[in-house]
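re: the backbone from monday

yeah here it is again, tokenized this time
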């Protein structure tokens, strides 16, 4: 039994096509994709952004074009791209008539122990892997792709952990994070559970560090310790998630019949003035202006 699953994506006239192998490496999902045609969403890639997952892509043998038109970015062989888009990115070979190979991997965000503000500095731009951890990471994932059919389920889990560690080492360097003290596995698992709980209770206006800590049988002090890895407070994380949901609904035509007040209350904001100040500080415009746009 192997730890890989051969996949073949549909071909579309003038679109990028996926033809390659998908690997399940413990917590990491990896795909080896052959792209043909102008940039387009790659079949099989997630259509929506997930804050619980991080995605990285490596251009292998030929240059790629990431995006379309004025937003297109060249990705040279050996360069990585970390992305967190609202939809699947448009990707294709720079020379449309020449197939290009790309390796992409997706891993749980809670395993990537790099602060969010540091990741924002590197998302969406080419990251060279000419030396150090970057070179090791690029060679390692290319080696995995070459040996895909030889991997067993048992070895795949260990290799997935190695991909996580090398990705963290690389991003820590390019994001200039300095010394990052990773959480232990139990701590990381607990933090993941806490964030899942918060996501499920965002609409509760009584959600607080005290109620969150009580639900997980830990002290408030220890809860704050868990969040220090992200360089944010518990309250800041809750507010950020609530604001994200509010902005999404304010800009979504499906919720046009909901008032700003209804959306605010739906995501746990009791006070309209507090909500407006927090929203404008985060996005530079008021909720009403966001709805109008």
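seq for it, each position gets an aa:
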């Amino acid at each position: 039994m192997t730890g890989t699953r051969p996949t073949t994506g549909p071909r579309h006239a003038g679109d990028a096509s996926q033809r390659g192998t998908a690997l399940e490496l413990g917590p990491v999902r990896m795909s080896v994709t052959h792209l043909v045609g102008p940039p387009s969403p790659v079949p099989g890639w997630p259509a929506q952004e997930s804050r619980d997952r991080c995605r990285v892509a490596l251009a292998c043998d030929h240059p790629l074009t990431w995006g379309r038109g004025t937003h297109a970015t060249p990705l040279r062989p050996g360069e990585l791209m970390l992305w967190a888009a609202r939809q699947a990115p448009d990707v294709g070979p720079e020379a449309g008539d020449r197939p290009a190979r790309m390796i992409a991997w997706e891993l749980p965000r809670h395993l990537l122990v790099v602060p969010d503000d540091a990741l924002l500095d590197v998302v969406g731009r080419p990251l060279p892997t000419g030396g150090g951890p970057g070179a090791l990471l690029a060679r390692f994932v290319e080696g995995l792709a070459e040996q895909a059919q030889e991997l067993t389920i048992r070895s795949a889990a260990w290799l997935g952990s190695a991909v996580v560690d090398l990705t963290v080492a690389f991003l820590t360097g390019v994001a200039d994070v300095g010394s990052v003290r990773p959480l232990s596995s139990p701590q990381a698992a607990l933090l993941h559970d806490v964030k899942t709980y918060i996501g499920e209770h965002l609409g509760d206006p009584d959600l607080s560090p005290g109620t969150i800590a009580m639900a997980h049988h830990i002290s408030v002090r220890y809860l704050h310790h868990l969040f220090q890895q992200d360089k944010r407070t518990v309250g800041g994380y809750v507010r950020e998630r609530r604001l994200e949901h509010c902005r999404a609904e304010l800009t979504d035509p499906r919720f046009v019949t909901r008032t700003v007040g209804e959306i605010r209350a739906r995501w746990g904001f009791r006070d309209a003035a507090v909500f407006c100040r927090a929203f404008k500080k985060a996005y530079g415009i008021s909720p009403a202006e966001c709805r109008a746009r």
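Residues 1-18 have pLDDT under 50 and may be disordered. The first helix runs from residue 116 to 119.
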